[in-house]
Amino acid sequence: MIDIPLSKATSIISPxxxxxxxxxxxxxxxxxxxxxxxxxxxxxxxxIGVGVGKNKQSHRNAKKTGEFxxxxxxxxxxxxxxxxxxxxxxxxxxxxxxxxxxxxxxxxSVPRIKESNAVLECKTKNLLEYEGDHVILVGxxxxxxxxxxxxxxxxxxxxxGEKFRTLxxxxxxxxxxx
Length: 178
Ligand SMILES: Cc1cc2nc3c(=O)[nH]c(=O)nc-3n(C[C@H](O)[C@H](O)[C@H](O)COP(=O)(O)O)c2cc1C
Fold this sequence. Notes:
12 strands; binds flavin mononucleotide; Pnp Oxidase, Chain A; three-stranded antiparallel beta sheet; single chain
């Protein structure tokens, strides 16, 4: 074993799903940004958490409007999705500039990204602040839609920085607790 610098320790818990978090800003404009600190929090009610850096637009929007949509990213539009990251300053409509398209959501007013094969529409339940540079945006899933088989969803996985992976071999392992 080698020591991993503690500043990079979180990359041990990888790869993780790459998603676009969609929110609406004050002007009603769609903001769509890539995130990968995404984790399930509860089956009942169905809750999901996103680790969002303090001062991120997605955080402000989800707090203000009470809604957000998680759009799972596939390799087929991976680069376009990653290009939606705002490098140094705020930028508008990066999703449009990167030739992504929107589609109406079923329950929430925040639209989805049409290219995504799996989406979770969420109502903001909580924003958990703790000592650290991120907050946990907790969403209650009010609508979940995906392609018929998970193989069709084909998520792009984020390792860290500019490293990504695609899914490998499928394994079925028996679980003794039933
Ligand atoms: C693949 C990928 C994953 C990312 N994951 C996160 C994350 O989980 N949390 C976070 O705060 N920023 C993450 N970022 C950085 C945000 O995308 C970036 O800060 C973005 O500009 C935030 O947009 P917003 O201010 O519209 O929310 C990630 C970037 C990339 C490219």
